[in-house]
Write a structure and sequence with these properties.
This protein has 4 helices and 5 strands. It is of the alpha/beta class and 112 residues long. It has a 5-stranded parallel beta sheet, sandwiched between helices. Helix 3 (69-76) packs across helix 4.
């Protein structure tokens, strides 16, 4: 079994923030989730913001750069599903996240 049901990748962008805010409300039956992106500082700031929204414990922040395939694999192997909000993927090496997801048998959903 994997540590997380899903990872919101690109969580610090506009739409990613909306998704993370919704999940942080701690709805019944909510999945185990984490936020991901390339900037540790931005992810930690978002995590602090989300901590005040619901009754959930602090959200886990996973740092992985779209240009670093190994960091993406390390991230994707921890979850069942990666929802990517970082896009458009053609401009930001999003293909690496697809490759990492395939190599770790992680479901991939592009929300961009």
């Amino acid at each position: 079994d994997r540590e997380f049901d899903l990872i919101i990748y690109g969580a610090t962008g506009f739409t990613g923030r909306l998704a993370a805010g919704y999940l942080s409300m701690g709805l019944p039956g909510a999945p185990r989730w984490a936020i991901g992106g390339r900037s540790k500082v931005d992810l930690m700031n978002l995590g602090s913001e989300l901590a005040g929204i619901g009754s959930q414990p602090a959200v886990t922040a996973l740092v992985a750069d779209l240009q670093d395939l190994e960091s993406l694999k390390a991230m994707t192997r921890r979850a069942k599903v990666v929802l990517t909000y970082a896009g458009p993927y053609e401009l930001y090496d999003g293909e690496n996240l697809i490759k990492a997801s395939l190599s770790t048998c992680t479901h991939y959903v592009d929300i961009t």
